[in-house]
Amino acid sequence: MTKKFKKDFIFGTATASYQIEGAAAEDGRTPSIWDAFSKTPGETYRGHTGDIACDHYHRYKEDIKLMKKIGTDAYRFSVAWPRIFPEKGKFNPKGMDFYKRLVDELNESNIKTVITLYHWDLPLWAHNMGGWLNREVIKWFEEYAVRLFEEFNDGVKLWITHNEPLCASIFGYYEGIHAPGHKNLREAIIAAHHILLSHGTTVKNFRKLNFKHSKIGITLNLTPSYPAADSKKDIKANSIFDGHYNRWFLDPLFKASYPRDMEEIYKELIGNFDFVRDGDLQKISIKNDFLGVNFYSRELIKFSPDSGLKFRKVHGNFERTEMDWEIVPEALAKLILRLREDYTIIPIYITENGAAFKDRISRDGKVHDNKRIDYLKNHLKKVAELNQKGADIRGYFLWSLMDNFEWRFGYSKRFGIIYINYKTQERILKDSAAWYGDLIRTRIIK
Ligand code: BGC
């Protein structure tokens, strides 16, 4: 069935600083935790780092031309905090200048700007002073955020404080699979609290500026989950997974409290919550203008007596992407309906959705990524259907504009609608880019 998108629905693409910029030591940038992590032997695929990445720092004009060619309405990128404050309290105009030029170029091309303040590249100086475990980090983050708000002065369509606090805290401090690579649940829960708190206080600072056009929100990666079997144990395990991945972030933001069941479980494992102070949850639950949702897949959950939180992820029979993630667009619908019923009615933007597949350049010099087109089509159909039912999803940002540094998987996973030849930095529009462009022009999905 044909589905239609409204004229003002925003179709964008998304990227993040460390994944695309390169120029790691240029114009005064100092290292972030991801520079340190990726240079630690064994942490990333074949020791890949973001030193050069897609060289976007030097090629942003060419990249914006490609966005224009595709016809996207908006571009979501993140700012590298260590470019703006390479040392504690020391503003770096040269680093700022890059983002000013980038936004000027976007404006000239009629592409709306969406900025993420934190997409995981914490300055190493901040990490060395305790990073997200030190409550002081909230002040450092506010200083950085307010400086950017003032520099861009109401000229940015959407501000996103944090991208996926789950990954920055749980993956980085508990699972050890992201920077800084720690494996300590107490640290992860403290980091999550400080990240959420820095969101709240930053939104408060933003409000003081009384901008007329710019809006602010946060982006969560939310994963609908299902018990593997209809057994008491799997149902309980699934509820813990959901608490750990989803509710731990949604509840404080929208209900001003941490989920009780999870609080009990965590307290058994990590001790008291002395890092939560009176008034913190009120600050965290400040009103947002919108919620950003990153959606990729679902999880199927089984009871697992040997793991710390007593669950493990298993697979169902759905087709999977190169990340081994099941392709289940229906789960996106389940997620949005849940958000609407249980949490919030503020506008939603899908701030990331997309898929990695094994892309190859064919003999004709093109990249025929039909699987990606199918993935995008089926998810966007769901978005259109949800909006027809009144879900109020205002935009969709495809992950990603271009192939890039996929964190610990290095350059081995390609998510882009633009193919990057990392040896030459040549860019090739994949078939999915043409498909996306057609959709944006016609607003019709077949
Ligand atoms: C992140 C991106 C990442 C993508 C695919 C999201 O979790 O925000 O940085 O590349 O998923 O893994």
Strand content: 15-25%
Sketch the major β-sheet.
8 strands, parallel, barrel
The best one-word shape is globular
Return the string of H and E elements. EEHHHEHHEHHEHHEEHHHEEEHEHEEEHE
> What ligands are attached or bound here?
beta-D-glucopyranose
Derived structural class: alpha/beta
Q: Count every beta strand, where a strand is a DSSP E run of 2 or more residues.
A: 15
Estimated helix fraction:
40-55%
Distance between the termini: 6 Å
Query: Low-confidence runs (pLDDT<50, min 5 residues)?
Result: none
**Rounded to an integer, what's the Rg over CA atoms?**
21 Å
Q: Compute the average pLDDT.
A: 98
Number of helices: 15
- The neighbouring-strand order within the major sheet is 2-3-4-5-6-8-11-12
What does this structure look like?
The chain is α/β, with parallel strands linked by helices. It contains 15 helices and 15 strands. The chain has helices spanning 17-20, 33-38, 56-70, 81-84, 93-108, 124-128, 137-152, 165-174, 185-208, 232-255, 260-270, 280-284, 329-343, 370-388, 431-442; strands spanning 3-4, 10-14, 74-78, 112-118, 158-163, 215-221, 225-227, 290-294, 299-303, 311-314, 348-353, 393-399, 418-421, 426-429, 444-445. α14 (370-388) links the parallel β11 (348-353) and β12. The radius of gyration is 21 Å and the shape is globular. The relative contact order is 0.14. The mean pLDDT is 98. Bound molecules: beta-D-glucopyranose. Beta-D-glucopyranose binds next to loops.
